[in-house]
Amino acid sequence: MAPVKVLFWFDVEDFINDESEEALLALLNTLDARGVKGIFKLVGEKARKLEQNGRTDILEKLSRHEIGYHTDLHSIHPVVTEYLEPLGFREGTAEFDRREGQGYRDLGRITGKPVVCYGQPGAAWAPQAYPALRKWGVQTYIDNHDQITFGGKPFWYGGLLNLTSPVGLMKMPLVDGALERAKQRFDELCDLQQEDPFGIISIYYHPTEFVFLEFWDAVNFSKGSNPPSSEWVKPFMRPAGDMQRYIDRVGDFVDYTLSRSDVAYIGTEEFVRLEISNSAALSEEEVLRFADRVGDRLGYLSEGSRCLSAGELFAVFRSRLLGEEPLPELLYGPEREMPSDEVASVCVADLLAAIQEPLPLIEGFPQLPDRFRVGDAWVNPVDLTCTLAALIRSGAVPGANDAEKRIPLVRGRLTADEHASDTAEWTKYWVIFPENFQVPNIIEMSKLQTWTIKPALFAPA
Q: Which superkingdom is the protein from (predicted)?
């Protein structure tokens, strides 16, 4: 029987209604009584509100758990996707850093804990967040969103370990009679993952939903509404006693999961430590084997404990041809998808000169340019990577005099982008978005950043 790792996370976001603080405290007490580690993703404004309200009791208990970030203002417009949709990747990353950085810093200061994971508010996902999060030291993205998917398994994207839309995502509804069905569903999800190194169950709640029958933001910020704080309204509350009754039911559910000897609750930091991808420099034989497998289709490639994204493949081929140590360095995808010029072949000397040029940077991390200048031609990074693989297969030796040699330009395709959805109708995912809100730019950039995607690898327990 495969062991089961449970990630129990809470989006702590309702900074309007102080009543939600009591639910947060009660949930912390419930977990502490069972020795269970929770993952609490707080909105910056919520953390500041806890500080202003003198809730040292809550902050002290949070110190025993893992802290994540859930943006600074959550549903106040413009939300993340709204303000990033018009911007490019590099420009959008800087804007995310500018708007959300203070909340991240406040959260760390107020809780006294490192902020190690992130999840978007509602459905407000955007790829530009990733380099900023990585710069801040965030390692893991944990939430529920299906713009980028990987068959329900953990994956690397944007430099972060992503635990989004996993097979084992579940919650027990806060209605009478839900406990037995939740137990059954938990067992089903465990059984479904018996062939994996270990099962992953991702359980989530919002403290505010134990107090109110409606979400705090839905009654105030739906369909693009942005009323001033003087006009914020309170959602309908649950009947007296229901908050503790449903929190007790959650405790009963946790007790059931702990009755299984194969279950352990962990945080995302421990989850990252379980990942075993080999990031050391590749041997010459490994480089050749990966180059042999590229052809004209470019995606991630795996071999044992090695798994290289498309960007890492470029980095390895580039280093190998320049006579440098072939390290699988993460490279962000380009700003735009542009075609290569209509040329049949390129000069090897020009090719090597092109890859010697420094790469652009985004928040200090290397990024692929839209195109490389190879002699008199412009070549996009997909075609260039496939051509570098062909050059390595031909037996090219670093430093050799290839000034006169030419090589056919391989026209490639980025197959990794198959993990990105084409769906643009995001208003059906979250009531907060304005009506008819469209995100074609976000979708296009999500595909370009699949240069960074690859599966996470784990050893059998």
A: Bacteria
